[in-house]
Structures are given as C-alpha cells and as structure tokens.
Amino acid sequence: MKKFINTLREIWKYPSAVFGMIIVLALLVAAVVVVVKIPYSEAIDTWRGGEEVYGKNPRNVPPTWYNWFRKDKLVESLDMNEGDEGVTIEEIVTEGGTPIKTTTFEFDFQYDTFPQDLVFYFTSTFDTKQPFVSVKIFTPDEREIKVGSFAIGATHTYPLKQDEKLRKKLGGVVPNIGIFIQENDETQTPVKGIYRLVVESITFEEGSTVQSEFVLTGQVFGWAGTDHLRRDLSLPLLWGIPVAMAFGLLAAIGTSVLTMAIAAIGTWYGGIVDGIIQRITEINLVLPFLSILIMIGTFYSRSIWVILGATIALSIFTGGIKSYRSMFIQVKESTYIEAARAYGAKNGRIIFRYLIPRVIPLLLPGLVSAVPSFVFLEASLALLGIGDPVLPTWGKMINDAYANAAIYRGWYYWILEPAVLLMITGLGFASLGFALDRIFNPRLRGM
Amino acid sequence: MGSVTENVTPAVEKKKSASSNTLTRVLKYSGVRLFSLFITVVIGVYLTILIANMGGYVDQMMKAEIQERITMQIAMNPAFKTMDPATKNKLTQEKIASEIERLNLDQPMVIRSFHFLKNALTLNLGRALHMTSVAGSRSVRQIITEKLPYTLLLMASSQLILFFSTVFLALALSRKYGSFWDKVIITLSPTSSVPAWFYGIFLILIFAAVLKILPFGGVIDAPVPKDFLGRTLSVLKHLILPASSLIISTFFISIYNWRTFFLIYSSEDYVELAKAKGLPSRDVERRYILRPTLPTIITSFALLLIGIWTGAIITETVFQWPGLGRETYKAIGLYDTPVIVGITIIYAYLLAITVFLLDFVYALVDPRVKIGGGSSK
Q1: pTM for the full model?
Q2: For residue A320, what is the enclosing H or E element?
Q3: Which of A303, A368, B349, B359 has the fewest beta carbons closer than 10 A?
Q4: Which residues of B7-26 are buried (b: 16+ CB within 10 A; e: fewer)?
Q5: A–B interface: beta-carbon pairs under 8 A
Q6: What ipTM was estimated for this complex?
Q7: pLDDT tens digits, residue range A149-202?
C-alpha cells in the first residue's frame, strides 16, 4: 500500500502522467457508465434499427454545436407532438355535428438556412370512414399557404418536400425552401419569425380520432450529428468507449501477462523448453501479423472476441519475451531463489511466487503503453472492413465515413469525432505509460 | 522493430584455439544456424498456407464455384439445347471432374498443402486464382514485381528519411539532454502511439480536402503527363502525403528511443574518461559512443530494410497507393492464396537471410563478438 502511494507521489511529478491518468480514469468511468446506461442489446437494437428508429432524423448533418462557430445559423431539428410546448389543440363541433380538431404547431424560426424537410405524421382510428385532414401554414410575413388536404389511413406520413402540387403553388421552388422565402425573392434568405402550421382534421365517425406530429429535419442534429442512414452518431461514439477500453486493456493485459509467464517458465526450466520458446518466437517473426489477422477476419469470424484472441496469441511470442528473459536470467541467480530451492520449493511455486512477482513492477509501463496500439488495431481492422459486424465502434464509424466519401463531401465531423476520441485515448495511455516507464525503469531516471 | 537487440555476449574465458579451429567453428555454427533458420521459415510459411486455405475450406468454396460455373455454362450454351437431360447431366459431371482434376482439387488438402509448401520454398510462385496484374498476367511473380516499385518508392523514401534524420537528431540531442528541444521531443513522443494511416486521414483532410493543394491519393495525375519531368513531379506530389504520414507516426518515438540509447552509452566510464582527457566531442562521439552502439544501429537498419518489403497495408489502402500492402489486402479479400503465400515467403526468406548475415556483421564491427563462441544466446 505504501509502495502504491509512493508511486502515485512519483507520478505526480510528471505533468504528462497526470494528464494521462486523468484521461484514462475518465475513459474507464465513461465506459462503465455507458454500459450501465445503454445496455448491450439495447445499443445494438438501436444501432441496427431502421426507419422506425431513425426516420425522423435529418440525413448527414453535423452536430448542433457547429452553430456556435457560425454566423449564419444552421436549422436545428424539431419534433413536435400533441401536448408539447408550442402545440395548441382546439376541438369544435360544427352545426352539422361533425367534430373538427384544429392542431396548431407554432415555432420560432431564426435561422439563415433552410431545413432539410418538413414532415407530418398522422395516426388515426376509425372503422370505415377515413378522417380528412387539411394543412395550412401562416408565415411571419403574413402569407397563408394552403398546403394540401387529403384523407388519411391508420398511419400517414406527409413529407412536404415531395409534394409536387405544393411546389407548383410556391412558384416552382422546392417546398422546404419555398415556404420560408417571399415570392420572387432573389436573395434566397429565409423570413425569420414565428411560423404557424395549422392542421384541421375532420372525423366522420363516433370515437374516431386523429393524432398529428410535426417534424422539421434541420441542418444540425444532436451533439454528434447523423450519418447516411440518419442514425444518431452519439451512440457509436459512446459505445466506442467501452469497446475500445475492453479490447485495448484485455489485449494488453493478456499479452503482457502471458508473455511474462512464458518467459519465466522458459528461463526457469532452460534447455529444451527454453529452446522451443525461442524457436516459436522466431517462427512468429516470419508470420505476417496484420495479414493473418485480416485473413482470420475475412475467412473465419469477424467477432471482436475471436480477433482479440488471435491478437493475443500472435503478440505473445514477440520481442517482449526476450527482454523478460534477460530480466529473469538475472533474478534466477539471486540468493533468495537459491534459498527457496534449498528448502525444497517446487518449480511451479518458485516461478509463480518468487520469479514473477519480482518483475511485476516492470510489467506495468509496458502494459499501459501497449493499450493504444491495440485500440488502434481494432480501428485499423474496422477501417479495412473487418470490424465486428454488430458492435458500433469508433473504427466502424471511420469506416462508414470512408465508404461514403465523407472527406470528399465535406462531412468532416463524421471522421473527426471518432478520430479525436481515438487520439485522446491513445495519447492518454501513451503519456501515462511513458511516465511509468521512467519511474519504474531506474536506467531512464533523470534522462 | 525493436531498436535495442540482445547483446551477443562474448565467450567467457575460452581457451585460445588455433585458426583452423576457428574456421570449423564458424562453418559448424553457420550450418546449424542456417538449418534452424530454414526450419523456422518452413514452419512459418506452412502455417501461413494453412491459414490462407482456411484449413481446406477454400477448396470447398472453389469446388462449389466450379460446379456452379460449369452447370451454368452448359445450361446457357445454345449448342447443347437440344441435348437430352441425361447426356447433358453426364457432360456436366465430366466437365466438373476434369476442371477439379486440372486444379488438383481432387487431392486431399494435406497433400496439396505440402505441394504448396514445396513450390513456395523453391520460389515457384505459380498462378493467382483470381487476381491479374495490370498487364493481364495471372503469374504471381508478375503481380508482385508490378507492385513492388511503388511500395519500394513509398517505403524506402519514408523509412530512409526517418532512420537517418532520427539517428542524427537523437545524437545531437543526447549531447545536450535536458535542453528545451529535448523536452519537446520527450513531450511529443506519445504521439507515436497513433498509427500512420490515422495521421494520413488528418493530412488528407487538411491538405487535400480543405486546402486543396495536394491530391487525395493515387500515384499519378490523370491524364498522365507526357514528359518525364512532369511525370516525376506528379509522382512526387502524390508521394508527399503518404510518406509524411509514415514519417510523422514514428518520428518522435524514434528520436526518443535513440536518444535514450545514446545517453545510456554516453554515461559509461570510458566516455567520461575520454572527455576528461580533453578529446574533442566529435571524436568522443565517433569512437566512444557510436562504435559500441554500431551493432544495434546496423540491426535496426537491416530490419528497416526488410520492413520496406512488406509495405504498409492500411496506409496504402487509405491513400489508394498501388503497392504490395494494398495488394496483400486485395488478395485476402479475394481468397487468393498463391498471392498471399508468395508475398509471405519472400518476406520470410529476406528476414532469415538478414538474421543470418547480422551475426557475421556483429563479429565484423564488434571485436568482442565471436561467431559460434561460448553460449550462443
């Protein structure tokens, strides 16, 4: 315990280590929180969900905070349901006895760009006679646009952008723009102010109802933006944390612990055992590491756990085994080992109780520094298209972005968000590992 | 590749032997070493063959593919339209059997894998299953030699710049450690945890997408410039981004490693003595620091040279650079075993030869090292 506190005190002297440690701790906490808040199955169902999950999001738009840095504000998305603020409902019955329900959606439009689309979603209940709906828009410059009137089924989606009649009415301008500009306006600037959308629904049966919802898909969305399938990118960004942590840490721990144990066994028994280990290391040097991982991903299984296992198996017998060997050779000659042998300790006891504990402090820096390479390995494999098929990860986000030519089309947020997170993770672990190396490795002290 | 290799310890107090003894010792050592390296290559390549064939699963896929192709061919051929179904079926089966025999697929995988191994070891690389070279050849040798110049250009330019600049900068830094630049390098060295392709994406974003001064990828402009100078300049322009991303990704850690390595050697007593004697710092560096570190420098340079061969799979893919790395990736995607094995075997041979030669180089540059003398490890 005292040793631990001393180490902490030592770490405190290195600002980069403190920086690294804060990042690593923050990431670990975030990983746990994400897994608890968004359970695995829920995350995958949401990520793999289709139109019903993401249909109301805009397509390929940057995050909301883009507006902080812009003078001409981009339109934020809006989703208004009955009962929300800005929605008023009025129900009257005409003299003839037909009930008319008027739903008014009111929103303040203070942007300099146009929304991607305006969509109405209607749901209704009836037996035989379909309810009838008519939509009008009142703009701040006191135009009244009759959008359309139609009968609706049990569910009805009405995207304004695709209404050709409305387009003609607006002088040939696409409705998502035409509604917001004055007629014959050359400047193409939207009129700012309060817009009112009035939906009048008439039902013809006892107990028949109509519910309406209005969605304005904007030019920015959420804190992470959306991708080509309208999916909210905050999910892969968040779920990328536990995946990256799990993959990086498990691979690093698995590799370094196994490498150390095998090096210890090899040095202790010497002779044939040691020889075999050395030969395996040499053979492993010949094997093309990345190619084999890609082959396993393409041929056998793309599950992240299979890849993890293969990564560990291929990373055990590498240069690390040689440096552990040279450490163990020194330790093997120590007098306390001799004492253990003298009292008749068994081989296993000497290896795991005396040899390995001695070298464990030296394990830590290597382990921490190895994490980034494995985190990036997952991203690299995903970039090559052999990432885990179900999990949303940072690497898969970059892969999606790449496959959809995000860089060429200027959707920079799509690549930059996961890239920055990967970079922060990598730098955090690397700085911590670096400082630990200087603390635990006396030869480097003061250098 | 690790920059610090194991020091081959000199024989501890061995009786001096005559020169003829030295020759037999060297020969015996070389023989044993060559044999063990060869076995290593054989096993490594055999494992690669097994993995690349998915333990025989690729065979089944190929058989299914042949079956489908020939059945379709006969069904679609108007010449066979009037044939009665029984004869048609027989013809199909015969054709399938002969095609399977032609590709040796009727033999079990174990036997075929040894065939592959023999061909690979004798550098008889054979023909690719699906891939063709740009010239249209199926020969694996053609495919590899066609892509090799691009990989060599990219890797050699970046790795050589990287190696020499980092070693010299590190030497300069080790002279005045603790200085401002030294601290900068130490602070920046964690940036090397980020792989090259990652910097590549950032560089593409900055220089190609935003500033629009360098190309996104590829190797030459289209249309290709007519004169030689134009072509050279165009290739160089395309080389800048991939090469710099490869350099940036290992630049700082490389300087840091070399600097630490030189520092450890320059704190030896004999260096202190040389300084105390008043030798100029150039001489101290050359005779007392560089000389004992030479084996390590040579090792790392040799490993760098063979590393050039494999190319950079992901960086080449990101930059659409038509090199061997990208070719390997394509070959894997197409289950093209001969190409994968071909690239692996050449790397394995190069590695084995380098490792073998390094032992002799050590003996040449370091008088303390004796070939085959004492504990070989």
Answers
A1: 0.83
A2: helix A319-332
A3: A303
A4: ebeeeeeeeeeeeeeeeeeb
A5: 134
A6: 0.81
A7: 888 888 888 888 888 888 888 888 888 888 888 776 677 788 888 888 899 888
